[in-house]
Amino acid sequence: MERPIVAIDVGTTKICTLVGEVGENGDLRVIGVGVVAAQGLYKSEITDVEEAAEAIGRAVQRAEQVSGHTVTEAYVGIGGGHISSQNSRGVVAIGKGDRPIDRDDIDRAMESALAITLPHNRRVIHCSPREFIVDGHDGVKNPLGLMGFRLEVEAHIITGAGTSIQNIIHCVEMNEIEVVRLVAQPLASAEAVLTEEEKTMGVVMIDIGAGTTDLAICVGGSPWETQVLRVGGNQLTRDIAVGLRTPLATAEDLKVRYAHAAPETIDEDEKIEITTFGDGGRSTVSRRTLCGVLGARMEEMLELIAREVKRSGFGGLLAAGVVITGGTANLRGIRDVAAELLQLPVRIGMPRRLRGLTETISSPAYATSVGLLLWGMRERAGTMERGPRAARRGTWYRRLADWLKVFLPRG
Questions:
Q1: What is the set of domains in the chain, with CATH numbers?
Q2: Fewest C-beta atoms under 10 Å: which of 175, 273, 402, 408?
Q3: What is the number of other CB atoms lying within 10 angstroms of the CB of residue 69?
């Protein structure tokens, strides 16, 4: 039997390990789930290696117990405010126009696009072709076999801080698990919740996690902008805790049970009982007051997202609108508030294309975890068509060359 696909999503508040296997009809079935509270992390970045490695190990162990498989390798999500992206163009000569474009030509064009200047602590995580241009004719998705003199590629490059990248790899490898691929969390979430039509028509995926918010703008079927903002659902919880003078655990519970992104829709007379600091123990407050505290911050976060979308220059190309996912997507009223503020159609993104143990992970909070599994399935299918995978260990340039295979058109 083919070895299972394993995903490890290292987030701010939880670490999730999923084990999946591909059925004969090509569908993905989840056979193992392990979720534990995150330790040693802040806004998706490692702050304590020992604690983070131990938490990863516990999540993996739980997934192993459920699936009956021993995890030796995994696709690992990487996030945090250090993630950024840029676009680059690569150009190569084909010859005299008397032969078709082959894979070597595409490889050379991608290598040319990668010839960018990076600060000493930045490393390339992904480089994906957005479109190819043959002799000035743009919009080419697959240049293989076309005749031409000149091949250009518009590439989307995602980079991260080298130390942050090495830290997460080290924590996973401390559990004797090999990192098959690092996948930027925005791309993993997009893989789980976006449809091909949405990516073609133009869409922005917003994954609002606990510590960070991931943005991925796709146009024409490819990513054009990827970004991670240092804001998330924890800000909402902290605002409730400060505004109502209540412990953080209580504030989180109140957010889940009673919060609404549109406080004006809540009855003024509705009251809720809360636990507060001090000797009083418990008190009664208006639910609208709670929602007002949270609603102001939610609006501020959405305005920040709107500014980033406008800054990207793609705001007018988003015919498919907005897909919101991540744990904060479960907040009541967030879809309507986002649609009004962003002036775009909005839907809540749920993980798709799964079978098996899906009860726990059928939630926007697990979009990244599911996306990592789907990424692995898609890459494995591409690898099988192209033959054995190149050596996984070595320099970052060798790793990147291998990673590029999943994006290149298939012959």
A1: 84-161 (3.30.1490.110), 196-350 (3.30.420.40)
A2: 273
A3: 16
